[in-house]
Design brief:
By secondary structure, the protein is mostly beta strands. It has strands spanning about 5, 10, 15, 20, 25, 30, 35, 40, 45, 50, 55, 60, 65, 70, 75, 95-100, 100-105, 105-110, 120-125, 125-130, 140-150, 160-165.
Length: about 190
């Protein structure tokens, strides 16, 4: 699909795989029960769109911008969110996740200050060089999700499980954690606890 502009439309039960979208623009559109797999987005823009109960995997972006977009009850796999940033790198590509499962996602160099991942499952994912000051992962299932060189100051990890945070490379001053999961923070120190 090339050079298409779509505004204020609702799409249901779409299944699109292994296609390329070039210079397409979607504004204030809603996608429900759709499947998007291995799509290449080149020079596309998605603004104020909603994805409900969708399955999204292997999306690749090149000069593509997604902004003010909400995801609810979605399964999102293998997305590198830094490829979907605005050119100015100011706005993050998502506005809200609600009851989503995010697997094998990459969040790199994103400004996620005060962003809430509550009610979501974020597994097998990586946060690198992100500013997540004041962010919330309260009660998130985070198996094999690691944080590298992030600012997690004042972030809320209470009742979250499975995260990997290296206390030597991340800033965690004022962050909140729950016992017994907080013990995992000591792994990087290579000490024994009895």
């Amino acid at each position: 699909m090339e050079n298409k502009i779509v505004e204020f439309e609702r799409f249901e039960n779409l299944e699109i795989s292994d296609e390329m979208f070039v210079s397409c623009k979607f504004v204030d559109c809603e996608f429900e029960n759709c499947t998007f797999e291995n799509l290449k987005l080149k020079g596309c823009v998605f603004t104020e769109c909603k994805f409900l109960k969708c399955r999204i995997s292997g999306i690749k972006g090149d000069r593509t911008q997604i902004r003010l977009t909400e995801f609810a009850d979605c399964l999102i796999m293998g997305v590198n969110w830094s490829e979907l940033m605005t050119e100015t790198q100011i706005a993050i590509p998502f506005d809200k996740f609600t009851n989503c499962t995010l697997k094998y996602n990459i969040f790199y160099s994103l400004a996620l200050r005060n962003f809430s991942f509550e009610t979501n499952s974020v597994t097998g994912s990586t946060f690198g060089d992100c500013n997540i000051t004041g962010g919330s992962f309260y009660s998130c299932k985070m198996d094999d999700t690691e944080f590298v060189r992030c600012n997690l100051s004042k972030a809320d990890f209470r009742n979250a499980m499975g995260y990997k945070i290296d206390i030597e490379t991340n800033k965690i001053k004022g962050a909140k954690f729950s016992f017994p999961e907080v013990i995992n923070l000591l792994e990087s120190l290579e000490i024994e606890i009895e």
